[in-house]
Amino acid sequence: MEKCYEYFQCNEVNCPIRKLKRLDCWNVEGTRCGAYPEGVKGKIAKSQYCHACLYYKQTHYSQMQP
């Protein structure tokens, strides 16, 4: 499964998800995809963007499959 930075072709080398090697970027503080406005802060606001994200939907639900 692709990592979010691969999926979005992200060049942000200091993103914490790159160091953690995890798929669940929506659970990691400090991550921000291009669809998440820079001025918006807080996990609740971020989760609203993440739940609408195609990467989240594909990854999150595929991890739930047996």
Order of helices and strands: HHHH
Distance between termini? 15 Å
**Total number of domains:** 1
What's the story with the biggest beta sheet?
Answer: none
Helix content: 40-55%
Shape: globular
Number of helices: 4
Number of strands: 0
Please report which band the strand proportion falls in: under 5%, 5-15%, 15-25%, 25-35%, 35-45% or over 45%: under 5%
Q: Calculate the mean pLDDT score and round it.
A: 79
Structural class: mainly alpha
What does the radius of gyration come to? 11 Å
Unreliable segments of 5+ consecutive residues? none
Structure description:
The chain has four helices and no strands. The model has no long low-confidence stretch (mean pLDDT 79). The protein is mainly alpha-helical and 66 residues long. The longest helix is centred in the last third of the chain and has 11 residues, at 54-64. The protein has helices at residues 4-7, 16-20, 43-51, 54-64. The protein has one domain (4-64).
